[in-house]
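User: Sequence recovery, please. Input:
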């Protein structure tokens, strides 16, 4: 059942005078789950999770990853959703309004989130642009060759052409801006509610195709064969970084989405459901990719080369390969879309609530700023390939700052805020929906983890990311 909920922010501080006091919100309980899942499911499921799992101990890696999600990302996700829903405001205003002492600069956590979301978008839109471009290349058959050298040339022509990279990034930005302007319920919820089920169906079709190929079992073994000897401290830290990125936590996206959550939404239950559904997509993606890769004798590469070079060659090798490649590219585009919508919402909600701009104006300003900054990432393989900051191209630099610095820093302070500043009574009140939900046991476990376990583990990831601790 869908109930239209338009909520008022609790404090006049969250709005500029003269702005309407009603905020758009998610409407149905299922819509909330799909929108949140849309943020979590992204390109990370398609190339990061399967290749990291395959290369780092299969099922052993999955167990470590699960522990990291349960001990760090899910608690941080619950925290963000809870604080966002309590404040009913953008990420920066949320932390400012909820801070017990106004002199304490908790709003900086929100600032870090806005900057991180913006930087992720700057490079994520480049990769999403390539994925969108590949739908066209799959339809025309341009990228369909069983020879990886040929598919590699097609990919390298795309990424080294400044105009092609830029134009595809702009197409992606226009598409996301259009949905964002439509609003939270009509745009984000309306679209993700339709796209997420479609993504599952497409994924299942490609999985069945891949698993029924002769020789597919070798790929399944590659993905799942547990090899605990591969689990080093470095791999554990990698799993934790992935768990952060996968569930989109530590950067204000879940705070912004939480601010649109319904009052009667079960936050811990929703977070757990999203985590399980996201994990299923990751595992299914692995089962769609590796059995086919092994069946045709290709190498299980990682990163962009798996997605843009190996996969087209793999699909070209199978009957009806063109059809399956088109499906696969659409699937990746859907995944990227949901993730980008949530990232876009972070700066847009801030600008729309804290400046004179309305939602459309805020989206246009974000679009223009991203077109400018994002261009430096889009040109990182062509004109700007030799421009390095701290030894990194702009593309790699934005990835490094957001994933290795801002995401863990944000997650760390979020956990500290919930566990040491907000404390149990307020948390109990919010997570039980003012006593309606009988979930005290889960809240107690959450509280213990967010107070002690999560901050300690995040600190380790951060120090490793900075090279201060090197295992
Ligand atoms: N979770 C997305 C993925 O796995 O691709 C990426 C992402 C989206 C990261 C939103 C961070 C974020 F805030």
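Assistant: Recovered sequence (471 residues):
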């Amino acid at each position: 059942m869908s109930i239209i909920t338009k909520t008022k922010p609790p404090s006049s501080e969250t709005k500029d005078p003269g702005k309407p006091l009603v905020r758009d919100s998610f409407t149905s309980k299922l819509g909330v789950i799909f929108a949140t899942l849309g943020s979590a499911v992204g390109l990370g499921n398609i190339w990061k999770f399967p290749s990291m799992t395959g290369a780092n101990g299969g099922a052993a890696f999955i167990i470590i990853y699960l522990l990291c999600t349960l001990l760090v990302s899910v608690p941080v996700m619950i925290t963000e959703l809870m604080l966002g829903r309590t404040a009913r405001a953008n990420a920066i205003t949320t932390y400012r309004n909820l801070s017990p002492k106004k002199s304490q600069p908790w709003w900086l956590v929100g600032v870090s989130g806005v900057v991180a979301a913006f930087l992720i978008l700057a490079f994520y839109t480049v990769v999403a642009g390539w994925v969108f471009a590949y739908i066209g290349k799959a339809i025309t058959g341009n990228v369909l060759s069983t020879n990886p050298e040929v598919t590699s040339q097609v990919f390298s022509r795309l990424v080294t052409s400044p105009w092609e990279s830029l134009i595809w990034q702009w197409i992606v930005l226009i598409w996301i801006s259009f949905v964002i302007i439509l609003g939270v319920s009509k745009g984000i919820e309306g679209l993700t509610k339709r796209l997420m089920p479609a993504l599952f169906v497409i994924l299942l079709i490609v999985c069945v195709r891949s698993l029924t190929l002769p020789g597919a079992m070798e790929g399944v073994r590659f993905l799942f064969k547990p090899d605990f000897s591969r689990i080093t401290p470095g791999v554990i830290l990698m799993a934790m970084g992935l768990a952060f990125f996968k569930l989109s936590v530590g950067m204000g996206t879940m705070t912004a989405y939480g601010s649109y959550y319904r009052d009667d939404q079960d936050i811990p239950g929703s977070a757990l459901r999203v985590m399980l559904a996201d994990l299923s997509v990751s595992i299914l993606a692995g089962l769609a990719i590796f059995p086919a890769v092994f069946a045709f004798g290709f190498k299980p590469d990682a990163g962009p080369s798996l997605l843009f070079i190996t996969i087209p060659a793999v699909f070209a090798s199978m009957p009806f390969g063109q059809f399956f490649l088109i499906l696969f590219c659409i699937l990746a585009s859907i995944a990227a879309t949901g993730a980008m919508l949530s990232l876009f919402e972070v700066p847009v909600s801030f600008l729309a609530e804290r400046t004179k701009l309305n939602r459309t104006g805020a989206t246009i300003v974000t679009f223009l700023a991203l077109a400018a900054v994002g261009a430096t990432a889009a040109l990182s393989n062509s004109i700007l390939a030799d421009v390095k900051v701290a030894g990194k191209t702009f593309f790699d630099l934005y990835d490094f700052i957001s994933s290795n610095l801002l995401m863990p820093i944000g997650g760390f302070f979020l956990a500290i805020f919930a566990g040491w500043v907000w404390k149990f009574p307020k948390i109990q009140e919010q997570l039980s929906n003012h006593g309606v939900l009988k979930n005290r046991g889960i809240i107690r476990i959450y509280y213990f983890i967010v107070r002690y376990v999560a901050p300690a583990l995040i600190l380790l990831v951060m120090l490793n990311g900075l090279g201060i601790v090197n295992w």
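The longest helix spans residues 394-431.
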